[in-house]
Structure formats: structure tokens, C-alpha cells
Design goal:
Bound molecules: nicotinamide-adenine-dinucleotide
Helix content: 25-40%
Strand order of the largest sheet: 3-2-1-4-5-6-10
Structural class: alpha/beta
Distance between the termini: 35 Å
CATH architecture: 3-Layer(aba) Sandwich
CATH superfamily: NAD(P)-binding Rossmann-like Domain
Strand content: 15-25%
Largest sheet: 7 strands, parallel
Oligomer: single chain
Number of domains: 1
Order of helices and strands: EHEEHEHHEHEEHEEHEEHEHH
CATH topology: Rossmann fold
Length: 334
Amino acid sequence: MNKVLITGGAGFIGSNFTLGYFKNNPEDQIVVLDKLTYAGRRKNLEAIADSKRFRFIQADLADAGAVNRIIAEGDFDSIVHMAAESHVDRSIDEPSVFIQANIVGTANLLDAIRGEGWGGDGQSRRRIFIHVSTDEVFGSLPAEGLFTEESPIRPNSPYAASKASADLLVRAAWKTHELPVISTHCSNNFGPYQFPEKLIPVIIRACLSGAEIPVYGQGLNIRDWIFVDDHCAALKLLLEKGRPGEIYNIGGNNEWRNIDIVNLICELMQELKPSSGSYKDLIRFVSDRPGHDFRYAIDSSKMKRTLGWSASKCFREAMATTIRWYIDNPRFPE
Ligand SMILES: NC(=O)c1ccc[n+]([C@@H]2O[C@H](COP(=O)([O-])OP(=O)(O)OC[C@H]3O[C@@H](n4cnc5c(N)ncnc54)[C@H](O)[C@@H]3O)[C@@H](O)[C@H]2O)c1
């Protein structure tokens, strides 16, 4: 029996990870720590809320006292640290919130596990702390090339800078204190429970309500898309077999220009919820985001080579699953 702490477990990736982990590990205890910001939703976890194997704690990672108490009382085997402020546009308007949640929050967690004697020699059991970071820490790519684990950190938004800072704290925790930590860099996720400020739910919800679909610039920016279940499977594997002190890139090997994603979703919408007009008529090009990175693309060959993982979900089917979920949950995130 393992006891895992999932920070940010009421958010998008956190909810998917928590529900999947609960189902696939019937012996394990799960604790979710989440501040429940606008992006966190306790209802996402209602299917497991009454289980004796599950506990929810509402707390702010920036509150060092609370974090120390939770870590001391929890005696966790592993921590999947996903809690973060995660929206680039918001970070441009209000960077200090990102510094508190993403940098101070991560520093507090690392301090707390150090205080509980994680790391160094003489550990009688495997303990592991995974920092779920992002490919955005590497900045932007031109038309060619991929981000590897060795790529230099060159964040271009306050969000990416805050995640990169947290990555550096995680690295220092390994080098200085031998804390058993891993950082991951994943590409853009999509799937159920994603807050409708991110590109894919924005497009789907605009189609459902007949609102305009805003597309930055000419929609030529390129992102690598991964279904959230594939990301969660990679994280689960790292909990079991990831090497402390290592960095792992996680990607879908699935690059799309934003405008092509918009067109694909409009076509799938037509199949799943036929409309008399074309959903593509809703597309509107809007002023580009300042400092908008042109392209992200991930080399996840280390995950394949060392752990046998690669993204396996069919992209079109996963996108249809996602669209169906938003059709079936029109009131989300109320
Ligand atoms: N969504 C993506 O495409 C993507 C890609 C790569 C990495 N990531 C990383 O994965 C993690 C999860 O992303 P997401 O898209 O699920 O984010 P999200 O915004 O949907 O969820 C974040 C969760 O963290 C909680 N939270 C925020 N600040 C907190 C604080 N101070 N204390 C405690 N809880 C707090 C929120 O309430 C929310 O439940 C983030 O660390 C993000 O940087 C996301």
C-alpha cells in the first residue's frame, strides 16, 4: 500500500490523474491538496469523495506552515506536484500570483520534505517527488528541431519563468540535499475537465454556444498536443520507475498549427453535433499574444528508451472523446 499526495488534484490534469490513480491502484491511499482557485473544482472528484482511501485538503502551497503540517502528518511515499497557476495570459496581467503559487509553493514543498528526512542515504523505502513542469520553460523553437532534456531554459512568459524557477529549485534540491526528485516537461494537454480558458475548450465551447472562435494572429503557431491520459500514464510510470535527480520530457509527437486544430475541431463538431451552418464561420483572428512562442516540440525518446513509454492514444478519437465530454457537461465548470 502506498500513500500518494497529489497537489493541484482538483485542476484539469490533477483530476484526470487522481481519478485514474484511484481506479487503477485499489490498495493505495490518496490525498489531494488544492487551494481551489478559479481553476480547481472539488466536484471533479465527487466520484471518489466518500471513499476511505481518499482525503481532500484545501490549502495554499504558499502557506509554509500549512504545507509543513500536511507533509509531517501525511508520511507520504510519493508526491505528484501539479498545483500551479497555469494560464499564460493571466501571468502577463498578474505575475505575482504565479510567483507565489509556482515558485514559493514549490520551495515550501521541497523544504517540508527535507524537514521530514526525505533523501540522502539510508532510506528504507522508495520515496519520490515529481514536479510536473512544462515544455514552455524551453522558450520557442523555429520550424525545425525539438526540445530535449538538455535544451537550455529560456522562458518567454511570466508563467514559463515561474515554472522554470521551480524546476531550478527542484534541481538544487537534488544536488544539495539529494532529495528524490524528478522534473517532467510535458507538451500541451487536452481532455475532459480542462478549464475553458485554454485553446481547445475555448474552441469547443464557442462552437456549442455559437460564439466567435478567437484565434491569435493568423493561427500559425505550432504546438505538440498530448491527450491527458497519456500524460497521466507517463507520470504513473515515473512514480514507479523514474530515477531520482532526472528530467524527463513527455510529448505527443503530434504537432499542429493552431488554425489546423481549430478546423479539425469544427469538422468533428459537425459530425458529433451537426449544425445547419459551418462551425468554421465562427473563426475570428484576434491580435496576437505578446511574446507568443512560435513553436514547441518535444523529443520524448528518453521516456521511450528508459521506461518504454510513448503516447499511444489515437489523436482524432481522443479529441472526439473530449468534445463529447464538453457536450455532455455543458455547465462545466459550475
Ligand atoms: N495543461 C497543460 O497543457 C500542461 C502542460 C504541461 C505542464 N502542465 C503543468 O501541469 C500542472 C497542472 O496543469 P493544469 O492544466 O491541470 O492546471 P489547472 O490550472 O487546471 O489546475 C491547477 C490546480 O492547482 C491548484 N492551485 C493553484 N494554485 C495553488 C496553490 N497556491 N496552492 C494549492 N493549489 C493551487 C488550482 O486550484 C487547480 O486545481 C501545472 O503545474 C502545469 O504547469 C500543464
